[in-house]
Design brief:
seven-stranded mixed sheet; 41% helix; alpha+beta; single chain
């Protein structure tokens, strides 16, 4: 697969990006099963869940798409906040209607993600999703390679959390190294990975 199809998303791509994230994370240990236990239509919930996060990233050109949604990545540049005050209001409104009684646990989850991020400047791969129709073809890793090539030109670091242990080896092949982990309340462990400047 070629990076020729990699582009920075615009507001017009919001629904496309959200759809890929929703379908890809429906069976994720954290964003699927832990966030929505006992829910049959997790993708339906995630179509609402991801909207404010993707909308926030579109403001700083942080969403990249491969092809027509084969893979989508959300990158936060060094020194940029994931969300601003307006975004936080959108997230709060969404959470109240989508996660119900799981709200306290989700708030603790977000807190853990935020607290454990390294203090050194870095590019943050906040989310990476491959559309189910394109799994196993290298679409997601190709999208990450595209951004890492630019990160390397700037001699900067990159960081991510893997919510699916099956993906750790894939990230290792791209130069990420284990950088700790944390466990969610009554939930799975999240692996942290760091890629030093090159």
């Amino acid at each position: 697969m070629s990076t020729d199809g990699v582009r920075t998303a615009t507001r017009a791509d919001l629904a496309l990006a959200v759809e890929t994230f929703a379908l890809a994370f429906a069976d994720d240990p954290v964003w699927g099963f832990w966030t929505f236990p006992g829910v049959d239509d997790r993708a339906g919930r995630l179509r609402k869940f991801w909207v404010p996060f993707v909308a926030a990233a579109l403001k700083y050109d942080g969403v990249e798409i491969l092809g027509n949604g084969a893979a989508v990545a959300l990158w936060v540049p060094p020194g940029v906040a994931d969300t601003d005050a307006e975004d936080e209001l959108m997230v709060d409104a969404m959470l109240g209607g989508v996660v119900g009684e799981r709200l306290p646990m989700l708030l603790r989850c977000f807190e853990l993600f935020e607290m454990t991020r390294p203090p050194e400047p870095h590019w943050y791969l906040s989310l990476l999703a491959t559309h189910p129709d394109h799994r196993g073809r290298g679409a997601g890793m190709e999208l990450v390679r595209s951004r890492l090539a630019k990160v390397d030109l700037q001699h900067e670091a990159a960081y991510l959390e893997s919510t699916n242990p099956g993906n750790v080896n894939r990230y290792t092949h791209l130069g990420f190294m284990p950088h700790g982990s944390f466990t969610l309340p009554d939930g799975p462990t999240v692996d942290q990975m760091w890629r030093p400047p090159r």
